Amino acid sequence: MSWKGFFEGIQEFAEEVAFAPYNALRSIELESWWGANVVSWLFLISGFVAFIYWMWQLAKVNASGSEDRSQISHSYLGEN
């Protein structure tokens, strides 16, 4: 096996296996404008839901008061 064959194997894996979901999304975009927009909106909605959940969790931790909120909460920032 040569180095050229090794790198061609990596190329084939990347193009045929690793990027297969992206190729499927690209085919949806090329076939239908509506399909492309539905996929985009699904990604936007899932990102928005994740952001809201993250903010909700941060608000819950902040309300519980269990976090050390002093300015020198880490030892490498200085002494009290």
Residues in helix, %: over 70%
Count of helical segments? Answer: 3
Distance between the termini: 63 Å
User: How many domains, in number, for the residues?
Assistant: 2
Order of helices and strands: HHH
- Derived from helix and strand composition plus strand pairing, the structural class reads mainly alpha
Mean pLDDT: 85
Low-confidence stretches: none
Strand content: under 5%
Q: Report on the biggest sheet.
A: none
Q: Which shape, going by the Cα principal axes?
A: flat
Number of strands: 0
Q: From the alpha-carbon coordinates, what is the Rg to the nearest angstrom?
A: 24 Å
What are the SSEs and their pairings?
Elements: H1 3-18, H2 20-31, H3 33-64
What would you note in describing this structure?
The protein is mainly alpha-helical and 80 residues long. The protein folds into 2 domains: 1-31; 33-63. It is built from 3 helices and no strands. The protein has helices at 3-18, 20-31, 33-64. The protein is flat and about 60 Å long. The termini are far apart.
Short overview:
With 80 residues, this protein is mainly α. 75% of the residues lie in helices and 0% in strands. It contains three helices and no strands.
Features:
flat, 2 domains, mainly alpha, 80 residues
